[in-house]
Amino acid sequence: MVSFSRLAPVLRLALGPAIGLSLAFVALQSSNATEGATVFADPSKIAAIGGSITEIVYALGEEKHLVARDSTSLYPKAALDLPDVGYIRQLSPEGVLSVNPTGILALHGSGPKEAVDVLKKTSIPFIEVPEHYSHEGILEKVRIVGKALGVDAKAEVLARELDAKLTAAEQQTASIKQRKRILFVLSIQGGKILAAGSETAADGMVKLAGGVNTVEGFSGYKQMSDEAIITARPDVILMMSNAGPPVSDDELFANPSIASTPAGTARKLIRIDGGYLLGFGPRTADAIHDLAVSLYGGQVTD
């Protein structure tokens, strides 16, 4: 099995800056009386950690509060002008603290744990946003981000808009009887397939788009045996279009286990931008629609 920490090179887009160990040492000596806060006392300079968090702040029209982003925050394009404090799962306290934030708004799962523990021990308010790969999970994130920034009313308006869009997107495949079996491939390492099990963003998206995750028996992203892939019999392989190192179509379908599946025989592969597909944020309803159309074509209803 491959731990999630081993997957970081596959997903990483950038590493956080380092400005020396002294800042981290100072941070460890501090105590954070505001840990567990839900509203920033001073939201003037917020470091957003997590692509969906940054997107939500922009969707709320509150981007003026942002002083930094993490390297998964690639949308909207304007966010790229913000300083990058590092990859969400490989943060350094030095990098985050170097932008002098008045608050840190971080998606659950940010790491490593040691770095997050350091940040939580500083005097800077740290608000952690839960991550649930579901319709309701998106609405919860919007409301928590809005509350943190002191714009509850705006967040409620956005949540209602997204609720309606998500409901409509999910209903587009409600009448489809023959569900496609999907294998989400994160990467191929040494000829072995790294696939998405339950409790993952990929699993959540497949279900919302009317598909069936072929992987059973494990959660997270793990290596599958050739026999397990053949037994899973996926109709479609789903991958991110921007994950590295890149895997070509020929390389994927030359894999003996993939070649032995219905998806391999038909060379059925769907690639979608990772942040768009797996972000679980303001654009997710559109991503559900696009994935559903890629899976079912004209069977998708408007």
Automatic annotation (TrEMBL):
Residues 45-299 form the Fe/B12 periplasmic-binding domain. Pfam families: Peripla_BP_2 (PF01497). The keyword DNA repair does not apply. Residues 1-33 form the signal peptide. Coiled coil: none annotated. InterPro entries: ABC_Transporter_SBP (IPR050902), ABC_transptr_periplasmic_BD (IPR002491). Keywords: Signal. The keyword Signal applies. This is Hemin ABC transporter substrate-binding protein. It comes from Mesorhizobium kowhaii.
